[in-house]
Amino acid sequence: MASSSFSATATISSSHHQSQSLLFNKPFTHNSFIFNKKSPSLRRHLKLRASPSVAPVDQTAAALPLPLPDFDFNDYMLTKADRVNAALDQSIPLAHPIKIHEAMRYSLLAGGKRVRPVLCLAACEMVGGDDSLALPMACATEMIHTMSLIHDDLPCMDNDDLRRGLPTNHKKYGEDTAILAGDALLSFSFEHVAVRTPKTVSSDRVVRAIAELGSAVGSAGLVAGQIVDIASEGDEDVTLEDLEYIHIHKTARLLEAAVVCGAILGGADDESVERARRYSRCVGLLFQVVDDILDVTKSSEELGKTAGKDLASDKATYPKLLGLEGARRFAAELVDRANGELAGFDPAKAAPLYHFANYIATRQN
């Protein structure tokens, strides 16, 4: 069986701990919970094995290997991604007007890791549900994510020409069509959940999941992070707390919604939903920390998008504020905290989510 592993630092400097005020010490604006710094130790709950097959996020700090459940993660990823891709392909057929549907499909089916939809399915299964219950929601999270990429690449936003190794949507179809394609994907995502979620899921849970997804996109979620990010460009006074606000909202919130919605649709109780939420908050921020690291350590060819954009536009990033090694240590801490939140679930059912945290921490593009 294939597996992966990571190394997490046992301790982080006290000054680094003090800097994590927004994520770990303050309530998130969307809800009232606060991260619990005393999460149960993973080692007390699982008998797991370690594997040296994947390089750790933090290669310089003293670290201890944290074993993961014995699980074929690569096969799981490929199987679920294929399932999601087939569902996405069927969800938006080529129809009149051809140009808008072609533009929607161009970005939606351009590849990508399908992190959010697979996380949605994994969370549903973790709490005992069949993944078919969450498949429409999984597709919806990818539609919204794709919308955010189309709009983020526009000249008035990040002004990028390359996405997933291909010309960005506005380069292919023009700015007007790109904007409309993003708008259409956003609106259709909610319709898709409402119409396609199996009737075996109670209407209360469907409405709760739709509300969760909506809150992740609007002025208390993705849009909030994007507008503050734009306002912060070139600002030398941006703090670590400001940066965390941007990325908790811009990046982590949609990933969080994918996991939370999967758990809701899978039948989770409130306590399990909140554990899933805390896990995904850490993983969502981890995704951005690693993205920032890759932006300064990888080439455009390796990334499939323009490298060094943040540096060129003088944007605040984790390597810029913490240093490259400090950013790697923070990533290692986020992995440890994320896995601690899974300790209360069945290890076999939670295995994909353990591996997800490691996968995101060690990804190379």
TrEMBL record:
<dbReference type="InterPro" id="IPR008949">
    <property type="entry name" value="Isoprenoid_synthase_dom_sf"/>
</dbReference>
<dbReference type="GO" id="GO:0005737">
    <property type="term" value="C:cytoplasm"/>
</dbReference>
<keyword id="KW-0808">Transferase</keyword>
<dbReference type="InterPro" id="IPR033749">
    <property type="entry name" value="Polyprenyl_synt_CS"/>
</dbReference>
<dbReference type="GO" id="GO:0016117">
    <property type="term" value="P:carotenoid biosynthetic process"/>
</dbReference>
<keyword id="KW-0479">Metal-binding</keyword>
<protein>
    <recommendedName>
        <fullName>Geranylgeranyl diphosphate synthase</fullName>
    </recommendedName>
</protein>
<comment type="pathway">
    <text>Isoprenoid biosynthesis; geranyl diphosphate biosynthesis; geranyl diphosphate from dimethylallyl diphosphate and isopentenyl diphosphate: step 1/1.</text>
</comment>
<comment type="pathway">
    <text>Isoprenoid biosynthesis; farnesyl diphosphate biosynthesis; farnesyl diphosphate from geranyl diphosphate and isopentenyl diphosphate: step 1/1.</text>
</comment>
<comment type="similarity">
    <text>Belongs to the FPP/GGPP synthase family.</text>
</comment>
<dbReference type="Pfam" id="PF00348">
    <property type="entry name" value="polyprenyl_synt"/>
</dbReference>
<dbReference type="InterPro" id="IPR053378">
    <property type="entry name" value="Prenyl_diphosphate_synthase"/>
</dbReference>
<dbReference type="GO" id="GO:0004659">
    <property type="term" value="F:prenyltransferase activity"/>
</dbReference>
<dbReference type="GO" id="GO:0046872">
    <property type="term" value="F:metal ion binding"/>
</dbReference>
<dbReference type="InterPro" id="IPR000092">
    <property type="entry name" value="Polyprenyl_synt"/>
</dbReference>
<keyword id="KW-0414">Isoprene biosynthesis</keyword>
<keyword id="KW-0460">Magnesium</keyword>
<keyword id="KW-0125">Carotenoid biosynthesis</keyword>
